[in-house]
Amino acid sequence: MEDAMKVFKEFFELPFEKKSHLYTHDENVKCKLYTSSYNYENEEIHYWRDCLIHDCAPLKESFDLWPRNPPRYREVVGEYLSQVGKLGSRILDLISEGLGLESDFFAHGYNEDFFLTVNHYPPCPDPSFTLGLPKHCDPNVITLLLQDIVPGLQVRVDNEWQLVQPRPNAFVVNIAHQMQVISNGKLKGAEHRVVTNTEKSRTTASYFVVPSKDCILEPAKALTQNDPPLYKQFRYAEFMETYKALSTQEPENLLEPYKFKKEVI
Ligand code: OGA
Ligand code: NI
């Protein structure tokens, strides 16, 4: 984890010429560097963040897409991702045990696709003007976030923003939208955002555990024997289209189109 964080920081310290070729907002590019969000053209406010994003699945095949600089990036990040991938599967196993689902529940399309974003938030002259990342809930299943010692992540608890204090050698595990659907609302997608500071740059890395595009999401059958299902079936790719189009809305609204409406008699 320490080595990976070092390499991530080294990447953002590279001179502009060594990383400018990766700079694009083109959706089809599988390893790229961009500023603010993927919605740069349409967003009202830009965010104080640079982001390196790349695929990690299948690990061996995506290796060649990753940055060549710093020279140890591929080796260190390859090892990091292989370990974080195992940790992600282990956490999903424990969550399925906790929810009372069959032990290989998440092996069926939910733990299929992976990508990494490395976020860099430079010191911001006036943090009251913008955020590092706006409030959102991650669209996937779970996210494993590595943060350095500089704080900035906040999570919404009872309508208040609370700082998630970084702990050495620990991951923050986010429950994301699809886990809320699968668990039939037993686990809630965590609303979070990133604030900036005037003094120190901050680097983080998010490992997203993502369902396959064709994965059908719905509450797990084992959880709807006694309780009615809260959400209808949908394809993950369909959800992602709404997510990208509506991402400035309240995070909870994104699941609204898939909710069963209560009938008024
Ligand atoms: C994200 C995210 C938090 C952070 O990448 O989705 O919420 O602290 N990152 O960088
Ligand atoms: Ni997030």
UniProtKB/TrEMBL annotation:
Keywords: Iron, Metal-binding, Oxidoreductase
Entries under Gene3D superfamilies matching the protein: B-lactam Antibiotic, Isopenicillin N Synthase, Chain
One Gene Ontology molecular-function label: metal ion binding
Domain Fe2OG dioxygenase, first and last residues per copy: 111-211
Domain of life, source organism: Eukaryota
InterPro entries from the UniProt entry: IPNS-like_FE2OG_OXY, IPNS-like_sf, Oxoglu/Fe-dep_dioxygenase_dom, Plant_2OG-oxidoreductases
Family stated for the protein in its record: Belongs to the iron/ascorbate-dependent oxidoreductase family.
Protein name stated in the entry: Fe2OG dioxygenase domain-containing protein
